[in-house]
């Protein structure tokens, strides 16, 4: 087998541990020096390949690549850019082949979620469709935890841990304020199509906190919801609500869209949390506080789960090994062997069954009333948030990697990304 | 000196480390067993004293009181309730004396901010004004860091650390997304009257992050602000904005109030962050994300600063020692001896000079353009966020204390808190 270079890129929303996967890919590729030459990272995802904007990761020290494991965000830049079909956008695929050929690239590692798996699948087809020999392996990553065929997705465990810890802490706060002040705390979390992240908020019930979870999977019933909150407040003196940004009404409208346009005709920018908080205030009269965690939750490397950081690294390493075994159009998938003790292994999932498929919360993970999680779900979640994979600190702030990101000399004419 | 019992209560918004002060008061009082009998905690602050709702902390184990040091929220409940003047509300003060007398209370420790210092001062005057012998000592606590006569306030360092760490992490996220997606991230933080918390966001500039800070102390100038953001985006590709909830226009209106009422006549619930984000979108066209940290920031015990947790404990211990030395109407105050190495000691501040006084950011801590912090300010902040005082975890979630909170048997008739 002739030695070929590898291309690696990050795609879609980044996570607290996507760089751990990058570290896994790069360190493992360095170990296969007889088969893999250099690892070129695409600057800003697939756009880096199209524009021949490549980063030579061999210029980074061993220490920098190791530190990458503990650094949030996407060290090489990410993108929201989906390749169209091969038939309609032949020009883009030809360009990819030109760039791959010019830089002797035989391996394509794409680190992303469902949309990115689709891009990776399309690249994998270049081998047959356009006679360019390449192996494309997808490295799973998404805080949404909605990829099929894998027990969980690297990136999710750390967000879940952030949500569980933050919701618990804020609940202890509101509990102390409830007598004369705030009685309800509303926390909005990510997950536009699936409630996995919101589900993590349900874990704090075991810590004596009355919590009501709103999932995208359960159509919102305002009366039932308000009754549930009131019952919790009456009994415990306070209540915490964890609402998914994807929570929606029976007719499909997001809760966050409920707010009418303001006097200037602007769309209401508040998310689901202020809408839910206002609803509670109007119907029940309770003083509230609300938070929207947004990027804080998916960037929170300081509270990353050990399970998650480890799996993210291993997913990168497993992808390289799959390539070495001759695979194409696949993704390393996490297979759970047991809950307690938690054991798992990496298997292989065909991209054709991964791309564009969303895995929602199974109904038996949600309590019959629709506002909490079941013991099955807790059993699923607990090992994923276990362990604290702390970064190092200097002067009170984490030490995160800043790479040199040395560009590879261009060999081709420029190309317009449309 | 006859042995007397002590009363301890928590007041106002709680913090990640107010329970460390409680732990300091209780453990230190236990060491003075010849002078101090039991420590009775007020359930829900001063309301616990008025309603004779006392908690017997002697029923808590040594281990529980030690764990309290690492537990966020207010373990005995807090309140937003300010005693009126002695002249106009004699009835309340007489009730306090009845309760203190019935439970042989000679020491009053009140753990709070500026308003609470005023309550503590009023109680301290009971000795002279109503001939009831009591020593009232204030234990400083406020995330806002706005108490005078103390170099910093327990509670602030941990919020500052949370803001610096979170802003840095989210900035690494937006930096990776900026090519095709989000270019500006807006983080709203607490501090209605003073910009200390927002200032902590300015620390991440030293990590290569372009950050624009909006302080309550600097009247908001929309054109200058937008120009500043645009310059940052043009140069770095992205920008982070840290906005204080107290940021306001020249005429005193809060930015958060800018939104007009909606079609139903409701007040706009979005905070300052969505207002600022929309402004940027409209004027500059950049895609944005925004977060409102709210209670998450002040409850985030998982990322508490070691300096802060230690000072909170020591403030509680110092308060008890001041009482033992015969003081009344005072507060232990932190006096900074040097920045580097960071050294401090506890002095004594008279409550008459503390109550109802707010300490704002000095102008020389804010850069001339009004959007950042100076080297003086960084020198001030750095030691306060230093060190990671991690709690213990079980199954991925912190182990926080839950006290038994055994009530003391009531001896008096009930009393209506108005």
Automatic annotation (TrEMBL), chains A, B:
Non-allosteric. The keyword GTP-binding does not apply. The keyword Repeat does not apply. It catalyses: beta-D-fructose 6-phosphate + diphosphate = beta-D-fructose 1,6-bisphosphate + phosphate + H(+). Substrate binds at residues 142-144, 190-192, 245, 295-298. Its main location: cytoplasm. Gene3D superfamilies: 3.40.50.450, Phosphofructokinase domain. Keywords: Cytoplasm, Glycolysis, Kinase, Magnesium, Metal-binding, Transferase. The active site is at residue 144. It is an enzyme of class 2 (transferase). Residues 9-322 form the Phosphofructokinase domain. The record marks 141 as: Important for catalytic activity. The record marks 115 as: Important for catalytic activity and substrate specificity. It is found in: Cytoplasm. NCBIfam families: PRK14072.1. This is Pyrophosphate--fructose 6-phosphate 1-phosphotransferase. It comes from Ramlibacter alkalitolerans. The lineage of its organism: Bacteria, Pseudomonadati, Pseudomonadota, Betaproteobacteria, Burkholderiales.
């Amino acid at each position: 087998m002739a030695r070929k270079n590898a291309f690696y890129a990050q795609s879609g929303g980044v996570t607290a541990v996507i760089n751990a996967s990058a570290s896994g890919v790069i360190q493992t590729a360095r170990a296969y020096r007889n088969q893999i030459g250099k690892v070129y990272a695409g600057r800003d995802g697939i756009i880096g390949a199209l524009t021949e904007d490549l980063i030579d990761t061999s210029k980074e020290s061993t220490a920098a690549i190791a530190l990458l494991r503990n650094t949030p965000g996407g060290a090489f830049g990410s993108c929201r850019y989906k390749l169209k079909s091969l038939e309609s956008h032949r020009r883009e695929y030809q360009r990819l082949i030109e760039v791959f050929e010019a830089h002797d690239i035989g391996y394509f590692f794409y680190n992303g979620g469902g949309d990115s798996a689709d891009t990776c699948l399309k690249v994998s087809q270049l081998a047959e469709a356009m006679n360019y020999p390449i192996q494309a392996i997808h490295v799973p990553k998404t805080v949404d935890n909605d990829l099929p065929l894998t027990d969980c997705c690297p990136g999710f465990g750390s967000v879940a841990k952030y949500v569980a810890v933050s919701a618990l802490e804020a609940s202890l706060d509101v509990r102390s304020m409830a007598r004369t002040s705030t009685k309800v705390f509303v926390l909005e979390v990510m997950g536009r199509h699936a409630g996995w992240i919101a589900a993590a908020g349900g874990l704090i019930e075991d810590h004596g906190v009355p919590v009501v979870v709103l999932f995208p999977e359960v159509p919102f019933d305002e009366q039932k919801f308000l009754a549930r909150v009131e019952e919790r407040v009456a009994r415990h003196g306070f209540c915490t609500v964890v609402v998914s940004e994807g929570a929606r009404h029976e007719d499909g409208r997001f809760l966050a869209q409920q707010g009418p346009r303001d006097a200037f005709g602007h769309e209401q920018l508040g998310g689901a949390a202020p809408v839910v908080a206002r609803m509670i205030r109007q119907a029940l009269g309770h003083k509230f506080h609300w938070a929207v965690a947004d990027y804080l939750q998916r960037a929170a490397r300081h509270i990353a789960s050990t399970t998650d950081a480890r799996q993210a690294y291993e997913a990168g390493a497993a992808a390289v090994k799959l390539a070495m075994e001759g695979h194409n159009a696949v993704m390393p998938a996490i297979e759970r062997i047991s809950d307690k003790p938690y054991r798992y292994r990496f298997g292989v999932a065909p991209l054709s069954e991964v791309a564009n498929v969303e895995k929602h919360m199974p109904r038996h993970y949600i309590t019959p009333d629709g506002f909490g999680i079941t013991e099955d779900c807790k059993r699923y979640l607990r090992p994923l948030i276990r362990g604290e994979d702390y970064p190092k600190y200097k002067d009170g702030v984490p030490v995160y990697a800043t790479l040199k990101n040395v560009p590879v000399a261009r060999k081709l004419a420029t190309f317009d990304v449309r």
